[in-house]
Amino acid sequence: MTSLPEPLPTCATPLLEIDVLRTFVCIAESGSFTRAAQQIFRTTSAVSMQIKRLENLLGCSLFVREARRIALTDDGERLLGYARRLLRLHEEAVGAFIAPRLNGRVRFGTPADIGTHILPGLLSQFARSHPGVEVNVSVGRTIDLIQRIDAGELDVALLSVGNAGQDDTRGEVVHSEPLVWAGRAGGVAAERTPLPLALATPDCAWRRLALHALDRVGRPYRIAYSSEQCAGQEAAMIADLAIAPYPLSLVKPPLKRLDEGPDLPALGDYQIKLLRAADRSEPAEELSRQVIAALNVYRK
Predict the structure, then answer these.
(1) What pLDDT digit, counting tens, does each position of 224-237 carry?
(2) CA–CA distance, 24 with 51 (Å, rounded to integer)
(3) Phi/psi class of residue 240: alpha, beta or left (left: φ > 0; alpha: ψ in -120 to 50)?
(4) I need a surface site. Which of 40, 112, 234, 279 has the fewest CB within 10 A?
């Protein structure tokens, strides 16, 4: 009896994990391991490990890590096109077989400072996981968002509040971090008298906490720059025109945290609260759950 020939050895093709490719694209598009980690609700160390595994799998470096930026290598640029196509194909394939569990609309409100720094990744992931839900986002002042919740115009809203805020009895605390004095590294704005400040509108929690603290110690100040958006405050600080009260997590180079002391008193904690309408849908509850999960990761 003639025996069959042994099969020729084959080299197994490495498998690219969709989750890792999504992380890779997030880093490439955000230009930061930290921002990508916030967007996909992982720690920065977990994201770094994913990329290290991907680089080992492909046998090449994908990013050039410099002091203040992350850039793609030539191999990283090549992979980016493939990764985007694979992610689109994956979503198309899943969508062809799995009908959306949730359907409907969620009307979501957020202040600009939260919406700019935390929510883009969250809303992108929610759209992927619940394609049948339409999310309408409104950006506005906390006081206006509360009024719209009460009027039935919003289902869920995030609120910026401070220890002295008028909204402390409303909503559930989902994020808390120190509010600090910030200014340009090497700048001289903090040494001027009266102290030049970059502040938002009078109802802003950061503004209330800062002015209350300065009044308490008798430090003379002037409002040198006023803007409804935290990006405006940031521009004034970078130009060394003023200093500002800022959440610690938002203080990035070329800004720095200024030393607190008799002339720059501690500001306490800045809080984010989640306020839900009394009559809300299942999609609104699911978005609320994901918002809380995202802010828990952001806090870490």
Answers:
(1) 999 877 888 999 99
(2) 7
(3) left
(4) 279
